[in-house]
Amino acid sequence: MRVLLLGGTSEASKLARLLAGRPDLDCLLSFAGRTKTPLAPPVPFRIGGFGGVDGLVAFLATQEIDLLVDATHPFAEQMSQNAEAAAKRAGIPLVAVERPPWSREPGDQWIEVADMARAAEALGVAPRRVFLTIGRLQLASFEAAPQHSYLIRTIETAEVAPNFPSYQVISGLGPFTQEDEERLLRAAKIDVLVTKNSGGQATIAKILAARALGLPVVMVQRPHRTGNGACHDAAEALHVILRHCHGSAPRGE
Ligand code: NAP
């Protein structure tokens, strides 16, 4: 069975490792191309958009794909919508992988907001030292709050040049430890953290560190998705893929 795996997340990388080398499955991993130097995956891969739903439908046909897996980031809303529409049109099954969001625990001071514009507003009028861990594509939202000093962490620092007066950019790729995150928050004298509710273990340490240090977190909620019944992790997704492939998952998988 030929599988197209839409990636760009740690779940997709884990799933690619689980699918690599299987004689019953032929997996092609797809990256959007946002990261200039992605780690080489253990399966064949391609880079770049498909050209919307029509392009993806054509790609599924020419590549003779039997099953589509959407393991994109919970905030990659457009790609997930395209995947759902294209799988329907191509008449092939779609397996969605979506890690559960983080949930508030005792000691957390979360300010939950619907989007980045509201996150910038939630920082308030008085100048604060802000740790921004939202990626690099939506930094412009914080141009509306130029009174703050920003520490920006992204995977790649090239091309990060926001249009506000006070900022520093550092690079970092999870997983991070709570100890290191606490050290960073203290050293930079951070007053507040801004993050997307991405979920997962790779970047949860900043949330634990903020809780331990009693710092507020502006938490951007996930976009609404229509699809129910998504798998929560790579192991569950493998099981569902094998059910599609064999009718039922082989023993022990
Ligand atoms: P998006 O807004 O949902 O997608 C925009 C366009 O990028 C899509 O319409 C598609 O172009 C292309 N695209 C997205 N994912 C693709 C993939 N895996 N393979 C090929 N083309 C893809 O996506 P985004 O939020 O910019 O995220 C881009 C990538 O970064 C995704 O792979 C996502 O998993 C990863 N990522 C996103 C975030 C985040 O916070 N958004 C965080 C970590 C990782 P066409 O319409 O031309 O096909």
Q: Outline of this structure?
A:
The protein is α/β, with parallel strands linked by helices and 253 residues long. 29% of the residues lie in helices and 21% in strands. The longest helix has 14 residues, at 77-90.
Q: Which features does this protein show?
A:
six-stranded parallel beta sheet, elongated, binds NADP nicotinamide-adenine-dinucleotide phosphate, Rossmann fold, 29% helix, 7 helices, alpha/beta, five-stranded parallel beta sheet, 253 residues
Describe this structure in words.
With 253 residues, this protein is of the alpha/beta class. The chain folds into 2 domains: 2-99 and 224-247, NAD(P)-binding Rossmann-like Domain (Rossmann fold, 3-Layer(aba) Sandwich); 109-220, Rossmann fold (3-Layer(aba) Sandwich). Helix content is 29%, strand content 21%. It has helices at 10-19, 52-62, 77-90, 116-122, 178-187, 205-213, 234-246; strands spanning 2-6, 26-31, 45-47, 67-70, 94-96, 109-113, 129-133, 149-154, 167-171, 192-196, 216-220. It has a 6-stranded parallel sheet. It has a 5-stranded parallel sheet with strand order 3-2-1-4-5, with helices on both faces. Strand 10 (192-196), helix 6 and strand 11 form a beta-alpha-beta unit. Helix 5 (178-187) crosses helix 6. It is elongated and about 55 Å long. The model has no long low-confidence stretch (mean pLDDT 93). Bound molecules: NADP nicotinamide-adenine-dinucleotide phosphate. NADP nicotinamide-adenine-dinucleotide phosphate (NAP) binds next to strand 2, helix 2 and helix 3.
